[in-house]
Amino acid sequence: MIKTTILSSLILFGLACSEGSEDETRPVIEQELETETTDSDSLVENEEIPFAFLALGDSYTIGESVAEDKRWPVQLANEITKVNSNLVVETKIIARTGWTTQDLGNALVKEELDASFDLVSLLIGVNNQYRGYPIEEYPDEFEKLLNRAIGYAGGNKNNVIVVSIPDYGFTPFGQSNQAKISHEIDAYNEINKRIAEENGIKYYFITDISRDGLEKPELVADDGLHPSGEQYRLWVERIIADNEFLSIINN
What we know:
One of its GO terms (molecular function) is hydrolase activity, acting on ester bonds. The chain is α/β, with parallel strands linked by helices. It has helices spanning 2-45, 59-62, 72-83, 101-110, 126-130, 138-152, 178-198, 207-210, 229-240, 243-250, and strands at 49-57, 87-95, 119-123, 160-163, 202-204.
């Protein structure tokens, strides 16, 4: 009789523990599920997205006389990641000091580039002017380069930008011939702006910034000719502030 009573008590105690245990585990399971969902959301927010940037040009794009991290394409890449921290920007620069439109075109023929860039920039023409080439040659050569740039962007014109030619007449090197240089740079910029707009390409005019070079020596590199890292920073500031440009890196 005593054994039967003890056995019955143990069975009842076991059932009670079982029911209580099930109730106690439910919040724990729900908490675990909530944690897993939060972790998943965090991974999406911090997902790394590759972003390929191709910069085409001459000494102004390769950053003659400034440190590599002061080149304007490199500074722009850094600003892009500040705007969209998920982007991992890989910057490829095809440019060389002294290159004309024809030199850049010849170099691109030798390059094996995929049509997969998320952003392509084009800034070219100052050496055509400096060497005294006939300006009549510039429109056709520039437009061919622009078409190449569009091709490298996979045909997406929204992902291509053209930057105006800065004015080296406002540097110690060019100031003695400033009026002639400025007049000719204006003529070249009228052409590249017109062609860019006719093709539906975003155009960034930075020439006015370069024309502060004599009043603000900090805008000129130590060689007395090329833009300084500070001037390039101002170019980038103008580009990154444009809502149309921001749409490229936020899509």
